[in-house]
Amino acid sequence: MAAPLKRWQRHMRLAGWSIIGLFAAGVAALALKLSYDIVTYVDEPELMEPGQSYGVADYIVSEVLFTAADVKFYAYRWSSEQPFRIVVLRPGQDGVEECVAGEAFDRWFFQTTEMYHGAALEYPVAAKPEDWAVFELIKYETPVEENDMRMLLPTRPGEPIIVEWAHIPGQYPSEWDPELFALVKQGCAGLGARP
Amino acid sequence: MTCVRPIPFLLALCAALAGCIDECTPVPVGERLTLIEAEEVLQVVVSGANLKLFAYRQTVVDPFDVVVVRSGGGPAEHCRSGPGFTRLVEASSALPVIRQAKTTVEEVSPEWFIIELWDGSKQSGIEQRLRRPTSRDGGTLMQWCYKQYVVEFDPAVWDSVSSGCRALGAAPAVAG
């Protein structure tokens, strides 16, 4: 029969088990908190504060896509050293416009590689689905998340472009120049290189 | 008094913790990964190192308007979609996942393609990165988050993509 534990040995055993218990409780609490953070991130996204929405290095962009009800604008390049080439399709019209991108395209493109936005609209615009245009920068060699958005181009001078993203709530005024997007709708006539 | 075995208990907690922090949606290995309903697709973008394709249609009952461009130059190919294009959309909208790749390959190489399918319902399309088979392994790889999976993808569809309007179109290619 083993000798009974001395008092200090009982205290040491109790202290040991207490430390193990506290560690286990800490790990469990951390796991629960991480689970809660992940769940709340998915279930309760928050409105963005005014500021920069995104910024992309221009040289990694291989394609630019602007899709509206009346124009399908697709610009691509084979490498960052080569100029963009533009292809434009117009629903209801035969044929395809094709040209090399010009200076106006460069101004528009560089603008779109970053965006600053204002505060979320207090009253979101209730536009018809066909009024929205989808904008996307495609980065062929960079397997990272894209920054697709849809936008409402203004119908009156002085109004901003309104943007919204797939996984972020709210609509936001963008600081992009609407005049440059008006050139997109002109296709090669607006953004193509001059002959 | 029954002794509690602390070490297995702590290991179980740590394993659960590791599982909690994997934020990527799990890929159903052994099942079909349905990304989008093929019949609802309105727009397709295929981006490769030497070939790019853009296609759209106004409604789900219309054929696609397809444009194909190549890095070797020449005017864009333009055609209405045919059965070959339909097979491309169907193949890339739902992928049977065979297994996770035991060894990963370089994420950037000419064999990789971005295929994006959009049904008009959201701001962005479903983008996936697929690597066409090489002579070494014979299987199509899918990049998903930071992992790679072998998926079932008809090799003939890859050949159709390479052929452009000749295989994807319903009518002869029209330049410009």
Helix share, percent of chain A: 25-40%
Give the strand tally of chain B.
11
Count of DSSP helices of chain B? 4
Strand order of the largest sheet of chain B: 1-6-10-9-8-7-2-3-4-5-11
Largest sheet of chain A: 8 strands, antiparallel
Helix vs. strand class of chain A: alpha+beta
> Number of helical runs of chain A?
4
List the strand order in the largest sheet of chain A. 5-4-3-2-7-8-9-10
Instruction: Compute the number of strand runs of chain A.
Output: 10
Average of the residue pLDDT scores of chain A: 89
Helix- and strand-based class of chain B? alpha+beta
Strand content of chain A: 15-25%
Rg of chain A is: 27 Å
Low-confidence stretches of chain B: 11-23
Query: Strand-and-helix sequence of chain A, N→C?
Result: HEEEEEHEEEEEHH
Shape of chain A: elongated
Characteristic key phrases:
heterodimer; A: 195 residues; alpha+beta; eight-stranded antiparallel β-sheet; two-stranded antiparallel ribbon; elongated; B: 176 residues; eleven-stranded antiparallel β-sheet
What does this structure look like?
The complex is a heterodimer of chains A (195) and B (176). With 195 residues, chain A is of the alpha+beta class. Chain A is 30% helix and 24% strand. Chain A is built from four helices and ten strands. Chain A has an eight-stranded antiparallel beta sheet with strand order 5-4-3-2-7-8-9-10, with helices on one face. A two-stranded antiparallel ribbon of chain A has the order 1-6. In chain A, α2 (103-112) crosses α3. The mean pLDDT of chain A is 89. Chain B has 176 residues and is of the alpha+beta class. Chain B has four helices and eleven strands. In chain B, α2 packs across α3 (155-163). The longest helix of chain B is centred in the first third of the chain and has 15 residues, at 6-20. Chain B is globular, with a radius of gyration of 21 Å. Mean pLDDT of chain B is 83; it is low at 11-23. The interface between A and B is large, with 39 and 42 residues.
